Prior knowledge:
This protein is of the alpha+beta class and about 240 residues long. It is about 40% helix and about 25% strand.
Amino acid sequence: MAPLRVAVIVLLFLNLLALALWKGWLGGGVPAGEPERLSNQLKPEAIRLVAETRAPAPRVQPEPSVDPSVDAQEEAPPEDRSALQSPLACVAFVGLNQDQSRELAARLARAGSGFELKETRLEQPSSWWVHIPSLGSREGAEKKAGELRRLGVNELFIVQEAGPAQFAISLGLYKNEAAAGRHLAALQERGVRSAQVLTRGSSSARVEVRGPVDALATLASDLSDKMGGTARQACTP
């Protein structure tokens, strides 16, 4: 009976071992059929959607702005750049009459752009006139002349030409103010109270011309030859 009991125990142990392997209790079990295999493959809770990560696009540096005037100056021929950088000069023509100032302005206009003209009118005294202002009529002037002769003033004449000085009495014309002043004082000592001194002169122009130094030097030399009787002076550019 002992061997039979041992055999039953061994057989029972083998059955238990097979059951444990079949159930997977020992960790190496085989999946029980196709449903279990599919359930092991599809696990929705284990699936994660991962967004595609891309490297950032390279940053494009903006093109540096270019000043068109700078390009134009850099690309200009050497002679153009020298003209732009030419220093300015100034020449003044003094003592021009009205016709000469007009001729100078016309010549500058024909010379082209780049020159600037500034004209100033000057009144230059040339004589000092001792006289009695206009009496308004010939009769008034002749009456006054008779009074002067009675005071011993015989060097006089009545102005006849039409204008503001018509019927004035001229008592002398002098080239300097001092001489005119001495004569007026002598007349006053004789009792002549209405005589006075009037400065008489001529009008002239001072014309300043500014422009590039090289071009102005040539132009000024040419103008000096054609502007006889005028003086040429330097002025501030």
